[in-house]
Records
---
Amino acid sequence: MSGEAPTRPFRPDPAAIALVAIAVVLNLLASLWMSRQVHDWLPVQASSAAPYVDNLFALETGIGTFIFLGCACVMGWTILFNRAPKYDMDDGAPIEGNLRLEIVWTLVPLLIVMAIAVHAIQVNQVLATLEGKVRVSSGSEAVAVAGSAASDEPVGPIQVIGRQWSWEFIYPEGVHSTELHLPVDRRARLELISMDVLHGFYVPAFRLKQDLVPGSVIAYALTPTREGRYRLRDSMFSGGYFSANQTDVVVESEDAYRAWLTDALRRPLLPAANAATELWQLRQERGDRGWATVPPAPPPLVHVDADPATPHDA
Amino acid sequence: MSPTIPFDPRVLRAPHPVPGAPDNWRRFFSFNTDAKVIGIQYIAVSLFFLLVGGLLAMIMRGELLTPPADLVDPTVYNGLYTMHGTVMLFLFLFPVLNGFNNLLIPPMIGAPDMAFPRLNAAAFWLVPLFGVILMASFLVPGGPSGSGWWAYPPVSTQNPLGHFINGQFLWILAVALSGVSSIMGAVNFCTTIIRMRAPGMGWFRMPIFCWTALAAQTIQLCGLPVLTAGAVMLLFDLSFGTSFFQPEGGGDPMLYQHFFWFYSHPAVYVMVLPIFGVFSEVFPVYARKPLFGYHVVAIASFAITFLSLIVWVHHMFYSGTPQWMRNVFMVTTMLIAVPTGIKVFAWLGTLWRGKLRLTTPMLFCLGGLFNFIFAGITGIMLATVPVDIHVGNTYFVVGHFHTVIFSTITYGVFAAIYHWFPKFTGRMTYEGLGQLHFVLTFAGSQLNFLPMHWAGLMGMPRRVASYDPEFAGANVLASLGAFLLGVATLPFLINIVSSWARGAKAPANPWQAIGLEWLLPSPPPAENFGEHVPVVIAGPYGYGLGRDLVENQESVVQRSLKEA
């Protein structure tokens, strides 16, 4: 035993090489297959950012599957074939290490994660330049929006106001709504404002998330690319009725959007229906049991009120 | 031999206030300064709180079984999840790992006790104290804190009822006391490891568990003061009207997030590093092989320590963090995969061509390693900014986090309990019940945590008391898994209690393991080797190498047999 040379009496065994090669090929195929499955695990892509995020995630799923299966195969092999028979009290091969192998498994993961990091930084940059376009045209302000026909002019800025627990969207045209309407394929500029605590502006179908920080107005931009109705969820815990704090983003054609704006302005301003307020009232009726919470802020006065029961696409 | 003992011999005469210590059960309820007593105190208290935290989790999963908030009021749910996280981290994981530090470090390095036995006992007794404070918050008007274990302001400083003593107040007090306790422990563990090793035990003859414990406790010393400062400021904002984090008073809520995560991300490494140590101890024993690449594994622990202190902003990618900062912290976070990967490959290398014995501790380590590889990959995904922007603050994070915290760290805790139980209680556990515990835990944790990843990818935010119906499938599976995990604790408890009461007597070295602690009788005498500290002549894990660990090994073994 003790005579065994420093761990690698390297004698190529054709059977072993073939087995490893087959395992690697199978693993590659499985990883490729997994990376193709990711689109089934994610909501529909509804913004210009979504494909970049999904492709990066697919790449990581592929690489991750390869590493995971590779390690799992080694574990499975040892569990199946390197088991000590009952009452066998012998020791295993006394291998203390292998410098070459250790260098390889330090450098290869280093290269892989750095490659992913560099790629992700590039994706970051692409996503940032998408936003950068807005900054270039931001001098003209939002007054032009209503008049310009399907131009590159961005929509907005639309004020996104987060409260405990409601969303309110105020358009430069004067429309107040609890439902965010956006024209498809046009950049929308948002101003994220929180009136009380931290909130998170999160639209899964857009793959975008940005916290609303009280005391700051955060400029934000996005481009919806698919018509439909998508959930907007509060993603940063905001207290008592946090989970009820969701509404919809409606992405529609330019014409429908403009019609909605005009129609909305004709309607009266009324207090919005509000899930948190309903839950709060229910709680009062039941004798105010439960643990302490601040009461919900008064529902905003809006022209258009969201109906949470309307089915959403994602 | 005694002149070479590298510690102050006064440690040997540290007082043990309860007479007849080894056979007197009352020592476990006293201010005892024996590290082995303190270790068991820590572990017993933490296992009690594991049950409390698990019960809270099962109520939460009961609530999440259906989309609307129908089992408990949403405010109650918020309190439950806050307390679940707080109890599991501050009252289960930190104490249980400090318990292992107490039990294992002195015998593993041949020291008779900790460097500061009284400080050690004081650090322990803070745990039940802040445990009671935290539990008392269930009883104050308004209920316990409901702002999450992050306690982000302004939610955490809203104080709806306006009382001075409120759930959030008690929560901050408990967390601050926990920090004080941990710092006291860290001073002790670091000093003990640095100053009290047996003659001949150079750094690179030290067991990996001690390396990882030292690496983890270094994080405690660097990071905890920052969290404690943040907690004090939060307390002042909540109770005394300051505005460190209140924008209307010129403060900044983001500042708290920096204070919080500067410690609380490394805190995960404080918990996982000792478990890496457990894996590194357990795999060689049951694979009957030396640890593959011991030196690199040892050094990798400190690489993790260093990197863990410069990654915290990855929790704030979507909080308004500038692009350059996102990129920097993405790269540092990704770099952690390298030392961690080294360890994973070293364990796989240890298994390779071994003679595996699938005992309960080995099963938990294999299961934990399997889950950890998965969690490492989802961790890389979360480190990537564009992906994190989508899945951050969703159930994907909850799934990832629990795969680390439960399916890796807690598996390691169970492995450590089964592995060292005979050593410190003198009794063997029942193998069949242990394996049943493993099977149920493995099934339960996959069922519980895998569907969470899917729910998160589809966009289900974390911390919600109610959710849209499209997430119902994943949540039903997760809830079933959680209840299964509840069932899985039964064989564990039965095993531990009945083994300790009437299990078979354990020999000094039931697993034919190599290590100083296995050269002691089971259970070890109060001062371990006392004045007969063996001289270490070789590195650890010499399985199959046919070498002795210490000088005159045979006589040391004979002494352990005689004393038992």
---
Amino acid sequence: MKEMIRLSSIKKNYGDVKIIKDLNFTVYEGEFLTMLGPSGCGKTTTLRMIAGFEEPTSGEIMLNEKPVSNLPPYKRKINTVFQNYALFPHLTVAQNVGFGLKMAGVPKVKRGPQVEKMLKLVQLEGYGNRKLDQLSGGQKQRIAIARALINHPQVLLLDEPLSALDLKLRKQMQLELKRLQRKLGITFVYVTHDQEEALMMSDRIAVMNKGHLEQIADPRTLYEQPKTCFVANFIGESNIFYGKVSEITKTDTKVTIENGYLTLQSDKPVFEKQIVNIVIRPEKVKFSTTEVPGFHIPATVAEHYYAGNVNKSVLRLPNGMALKMTSAGDQKLPEIGKSGFVYWELADAILIKTTSDDVFKAVDNPDFSMVNQMGGD
Amino acid sequence: MEKSIDSENVPITKTKSHYFSKTLIKWGQILPISIWMLLLVVIPLMYVLIMSFMSRDFYGGIVYKFTLSNFAQVFAGQNLKIYAQSIGIGAVSTVVCLLIAYPFAMFIAQKGPVAKTILMALVVVPSVSNSLVRLFSWITLLRKTGVVNTTLEHLGIIHHPLSMVYNTGGIVLGMVYLLLMFMIIPIFNSLDRIDHNLIEAAEDLGATKWQILKEIVIPLSKPGIFAGCIMVFIPSLGYFFVSDVMGGGTSTMMGNLIENQFQTSRNWPLGSAISVMLIVLTLVLLVLFQRRGGDMADLGGR
């Protein structure tokens, strides 16, 4: 695949504050890449550096294998869709869409048909003469996209473009954006803090946290093989255990956790006394009132929440930890207070090798301790 | 049960006294300003309006008899010349103010929040001292024997003193000096309100600095420009003392004409009629401003 954008060793400081710490990744031609992370993780700053509104403190941004870090925005074949649309309030729809052409010196007669073509692309044909205050939020968003596309950019940058829309419209626009991207084959770099949006739309997701890249991969890999506890916790729901490898035998590996131990498949590349995190997704957790063969931990049913298509349950382990479990919505649930056993396929347990600055304990995570509290005694 | 009896009785008295105290506070808040406005704005304006339709005897005494002749005199030949002159000086002053204020307001609008507050305060600060005193200090500087001329002559740069005041240019200087702030404030407000994202969006779409100014910044600051022009042009027609001090009585402006009717000519009805015309002109400009989508708050300052 052809390389479109490459960030190498990008650093960005505002005074003494390090916003971006050594960022490296590549965006390929025609790809839908999403930068995902909590607010303040540096994703918007990164996007603004690609657009040319900010200069990196150090490092180089390559567009089509040519350095562009010091070029102003208008000298890059990149256009941006802004978070709050940033449409020109004193201009009509057509004047907004045709702005890029006008700046490039395209005469008025030639602009008209191109503007109409763009409006057709975003399904707003015939809206050219309208004023902006006659448009809904979703329509404004489409105008912003049409305006950004009219100069045929090689890359379209989108900074949380759907965050101002209500849920239903947002879902609809997600599909529409994805369809548009496939149709045009333009590289999209998308910024969002909404993990569901990222999973649905992206070819690849770059998960960012505190100014560095946690993991870049396709959505399925991110969900099934998170490399860090941050990724496991940010994308989807997780149960994260913290423990120490205590015994490696031919058949399995035992990890001691607080007041107990977990079993891992024997092929996991760990060594004895290694500190590890083990992630198990709630939908992989199973509960049985009778003892099951193989790996299991005793547990008590603490809470049930009905969420339509799924049931969300909280199970309490002997060490006091709350374990999240989701099951199909139509499934019959064990009574609250009932004792039994939790178990899962050993293959479903995800091993995360812990480094000193990425140790995950339940107390680190407010969500998690909240579940603990919800469990009650 | 006890609780419900309580809650039935207490709130009624509470609501009543609450209502009275609320009404009292409301009247207490608006009464002083109402009396003030009535005594100092409404009554004098009504008096001027009525006066403009009254007749006058030979010695300048007012005869309470309805007539339209004052308004006919308003448009008499020699007066039209004065209006043209006033409007000319007003227009030049407005344009000069705009040319100075716009770049300056843009300069302030690009500063950080602290610098903005300080600079805007500095714009307003001179207005706390008396404007006549400030005009006379210009005279001290610029008259033939003033500081500037003497210095230049001593330095041998000029041999004859320059006439910088006591002429039309002096009037324009005075007007611009006193009214500049009323141009800066609304323009700054409208520039400050422009969303920075719009500038970035224009830049992103290939606009150069000049194109951003022409296509985005100036069109979006039009309400401020228009408000500033009104705020400068209208007072410039009425500031008779500027022409008195800086013009040395060489040219008569609308304000001087009105002043003369009340003082020298003792023709109060005619003075009133010209004043009414000036008020009507102001109202027309304000209506135009609002029709063009201007914000009245821009004219009142903040």
